ATP-dependent DNA helicase RecG
Amino acid sequence: MPKRPPAPSVDPLSQSVTTLPGVGPAVAAKLAARGLHQVQDLWFLLPLRYEDRTRVTPIGMLAAGSPAQVVGQVLAVERGFRYRPVLKVAVSDPSQATVVLRFFHFNRAQAALFVPGRRLVAYGEPRPGQHGLEMVHPSYRMLADDAEAGVRDRLDPVYPAVEGLGPQSLLRLIGEALKRLPPAEQLELLPAGLRERLQLPTLREALLTAHRPPPDADLPQFALGVHPAQRRLALEELLAHHLSLRRQRIALRAHGAMPVRPPGKLAASLGRRLKFKLTGAQQRVLDEVARDMARPEPMLRLVQGDVGSGKTVVAALAAANAVEAGRQVALMAPTELLAEQHLANFRAWLEPLGVQVAWLAGKVTGKARTAALTEIASGRAQVVVGTHALMQDKVAFASLALVVVDEQHRFGVHQRLALRDKGLDGSQAPHQLVMTATPIPRTLAMSAYADLDVSVIDEMPPGRTPVTTVAVSGDRRGEVVERIRAACAEGRQAYWVCTLIEDSEEVEAQAAQSTYEQLTAALPDLRLGLLHGRMKPAEKQAVMARFKAGELQLLVATTVIEVGVDVPNASLMIIENAERLGLAQLHQLRGRVGRGAAASSCVLMYKPPLSQMARERLEVMRASTDGFLIAEKDLELRGPGELLGTRQTGLASFRVADLVRDADLLPEVHRAAETLLAESPGLADRVVERWVGGAARFAGA
Ligand code: ADP
Ligand code: MG
């Protein structure tokens, strides 16, 4: 995107926050730390929720789960220090009912305020507690004996915290910013037809309603996020994100690419050497890929295929074409374990055909690294397999034509851009093939990957028997161990996966270690292996190789085996603490079995009691092996952020929109995006700038 000169500051759309009363350098710095530079940034800092202090609820009428405001008298106060300090204040009102206010953080002065007989007003969410309903950390204010509670005439917006700025100051600043909202016509960027068709308010009206909902606003509608004001904002936000991704695509396409269209001899030889025939779906996707690569524009294709659908070989055949055309291929995987496995496959497939396959991971150091870098830079290495180490500055390719990224959701858009830049050769960009085993519901895929074309391998290789899944309480561990003994006696192999909530490789490794020891003691006749993230790459590789060769019968592992590990003879999988994992992850793990002809099973071990959510998840896993169906459920249960690992993709940064809730807006969004890009690219720029802001810089990358 070309740099535009800064607009004159008289324009209310670009005034600095420092023009607001009470914003000096200190406050401006705090706002800036949160990405709030201009007055308009404050308009778009939207409430997370609303609190209804427009009325007082009699304590007797409180309902668990429904936040409410009460006015009452302190009845009793209790301070305890059993496990941690706690302050409990019983409050009652003329309805004769009592509610307990419970505080875990409080200071002496605060505690001293609560004197039996004093009146107060409190707002919070009642929950069932030891003695009836409780409010944990309610907001409250003491009242003079005869004072009115003073109900508000509007819903109170609750804003995301800005560090170092109190909620009251923020509320005031946003109020000041809203006073500068220009007339509707000046603010509006959406085509009028679109708004009218969807019967949505103008942006000005939507912002005013969202920040300061009137007392008669439909609160349940607001709470669900489906108020027309919110829908209006969500529409524009979705449009902005979509446009931003589309522009990345357009910018990339503008680079052009070297068309790859060899006679196809190398791929044909590889095909002949394979022990199997491609499925119809693999062939179709391969054709799509080959067609894309033959064009003078960079391919941007996402291949989705359920676990075990055979994506790797499709990538290998595409790679063969690039190599035959005299160019290089980079294959990047998110973990070393997975990258090593790809390396083994690619070497087995391509080296007999005379193709040089090089290896580059973070752990490749010293002379080996220098050698690898030289091979890559000289072009002698025709295929380079590795981890994100491939993206480092030192890595230079001689003539990179194809970048394959496996398990896309673990890499972000930005990382993808970094690898692409490796292939920038004059004005040309490499073709990109992105593979993911996390099936993403269609609507979501269209939004998350608006910069990519999508192919789906929707057919499994023949001869697979579906995995049978059971959920078993951890109390029955003994039976599960017996089951492993029996399976291994029949020549089968098994995985035991240890999972933990803590996001610490260290703790997880320890847990796996001790499980390994227990199981070794319980199964003295079996040959066990241990695999976790703290082991050296060479150790991991050795263990994997022994398991693959059938020397080890039971592999005790952490979730490092989640992605891509492929040992067809393994047909039993035990997942410990399965209730803690999300569906997508369980599906990935389970995908490690059911890869051979033997009937496979998966045991989901859980620690009772199960929450409702956990029960539902295990039930979904028990009932289905269809990755797309599981993804739809996952989306329903957890929302898109979790599903896509959006901390990386940037989708989590939606302020109002919710891809599930607002899914019905997406077709409109896509249509509007096409129209804007074609007819008023300037407007499109402004929409992106407004909502995506700094992230939009990547658009021109
Ligand atoms: P994923 O899509 O999960 O990455 P892989 O590429 O690892 O799946 O393939 C899973 C297994 O299926 C591998 O052992 C692979 O060799 C095998 N495979 C791939 N395609 C076919 C096919 N058409 N017929 C039989 N087996 C296949
Ligand atoms: Mg794979």
The mean pLDDT is 85. The radius of gyration is 30 Å. The chain has 26 helices and 22 strands. Residues 276, 278-279, 282, 305, 307-313, 437, 461, 564, 566, 568, 595 surround adenosine-5'-diphosphate (ligand 1) (CB under 6 Å).
